[in-house]
Amino acid sequence: MQKLVLMRHGESVWNLENRFTGWTDVDLSPEGAEQAKRAAQLLAKHGYNFDEAFTSYLKRSIKSLHIVLEELDHLWIPVQKSWRLNERFYGALQGLNKADTIAKYGAEQVEKWRRAPNDYPPAITKEDERYPGFDLRYKDLTERELPLTENLSETMDRVLPYWNEIIIPTIRKNQKVIICAHGNSLRALIKYIDNLSDEEVTKLEIPTAQPLVYELDEGLNRIRHYYLE
Prior knowledge:
The longest helix is centred in the C-terminal third of the chain and has 21 residues, at 152-172. Helices cover 38% and strands 13% of the residues. The chain is built from eight helices and six strands; from the N terminus they run βααβαβαααβααββ. The chain has helices at residues 13-16, 30-45, 59-71, 98-105, 107-115, 152-172, 183-193, 198-202; strands spanning 2-8, 52-55, 79-81, 177-181, 212-216, 222-227. The chain is globular, with a radius of gyration of 17 Å. Helix 2 crosses helix 3 and helix 6 (152-172) packs across helix 7 (183-193). Strands 3-2-4-1-5-6 form a six-stranded mixed beta sheet. The protein is of the alpha/beta class.
């Protein structure tokens, strides 16, 4: 049996301010850093250690992972970063307060934008300062890979190749792996691993900085999963 640990980053500054974040590269809040530290202490309590780690290109995820690895004295292990593990790109919603957006568009519409697998948030244009084509970290992406908006299905479409081509082969080498990413990139991955329906994934909540353990059989199929306590 192999164990895989998934963890959403700690609370970010925009989580605290109740704003849509997406690919906007905001930092952890002080509480978010403490959450990551507590997650590491929980992992240590249960005897977890890792051979390799994966995270996104966004600092809230990178810093959360760094805090965990530092607490575990694991800063020496390889860490792979990929834009494919980034949060879902929320288009023109990025930076907006969620309560204000609900007041303007209604709770039902905002919920669809947030959670429905095939609903798109309003798009930005390529002239918008939020367009990732202006960011050096995405200089190697094709125009097709640079989003103007993104639904959960498209997030899943970019996460799964990385899972199948990079992460799965690492686990198959009997490596102990932790993935520190985001609410929606993890939601997309969990939908795939657990074979969730669209309705089930819409209701899926992933708390910040709480390690989620997947026990996998020899074929890397899920046996069970649970949050560490």
